[in-house]
Design a protein that fits this description.
The chain is an alpha/beta fold. It has 12 helices and 8 strands. It has an 8-stranded parallel barrel, surrounded by 7 helices. Bound molecules: cytidine-5'-monophosphate. The site of cytidine-5'-monophosphate (C5P) has 15 residues, from β8 and α11.
Length: about 230
């Protein structure tokens, strides 16, 4: 399982510069296959960072696109040309926007849908005009995404079972909010350990600070791989 977990764990490169990101990729790429580039690194280093990292590994570009369908479609095309393997969009953009993304990806880039951010609570939903519960909204948006061709969803650990039961096995479930038992929780409130999240049905785990902020990132990654292989 250690070998297969290496392509199921995605390291989030939430660092402020290209230099730090490439240092982590160099340290870790022999043990993990996919790295996540998010808004912080992308806006600091520019889109060239994708090319730099893709020389050594596969890329998950977490830009959470949400715009008019034409703009989202064109952005997806550009990302696909750069060799991005996974890309996020906000499912609250609606069916036409989701279809623009999935059509533009042409199967070259996996489109992952974001439902309700884990930083939102029911008050956030009310403020933005949504009257249902968080679970209702997550399920509604995930279903809309599947109907319009997405390949997977980004979900909190506690949503995995509900989504798997409702959406079946074809959809990929990508899960952040992961904390090994030996790591500080930080600002993640509803987390699971890597083993618990795989057990619940996650396809991929996104792990950032437990690895990247560890004094020895490679050691932290190896410890996680060892734990999930047990
Ligand atoms: O450092 P940590 O393991 O908390 O990093 C988790 C990563 O997953 C971050 O890049 C964060 O932006 C992302 N993420 C998240 N919760 C979501 C969606 C994405 O923590 N709902």
């Amino acid at each position: 399982m250690t070998k297969s977990a290496a392509n199921k764990i995605i390291v989030a490169l939430d660092v402020p510069s290209e230099k730090e990101a490439l240092q982590l990729v160099n340290d870790l790429h022999s043990n993990v296959e996919i790295f996540k580039v998010g808004l912080q690194l992308y806006t600091a280093a520019g889109p060239g960072i994708v090319g730099g990292i893709s020389l050594l590994s596969r890329i998950f570009l977490d830009l959470k696109l949400h715009d008019i369908p034409n703009t989202v479609g064109k952005a997806v095309e550009s990302a696909a040309t750069r060799g991005v393997e996974m890309l996020t969009i906000h499912l609250s953009g609606g069916s036409e926007m989701i279809r623009a993304a999935t059509t533009a990806a042409k199967g070259n880039t996996l489109i992952l849908g974001v439902t309700v951010l884990t930083s939102s609570n029911e008050q956030t939903l009310r403020e933005t005009g949504i009257s249902g519960t968080i679970d209702d909204q997550v399920l509604k948006l995930a279903t809309l995404g599947v109907e319009n061709g997405i390949d997977g969803v980004v979900a909190s650990p506690h949503e995995i079972k509900m989504l798997r039961a409702e959406l079946g096995n074809k959809i990929k479930i990508v899960v952040p909010g992961i904390r090994p038992s030996w790591s500080a929780a930080g600002d993640q409130k509803r987390f699971m350990t890597p083993g618990e999240a795989f057990e619940a049905g996650a396809d991929y785990l996104v792990i950032g600070r437990p690895i990247t902020a560890h004094k020895n990132p490679r050691e932290a990654l190896e410890r996680i791989l060892e734990e999930v292989s047990g």
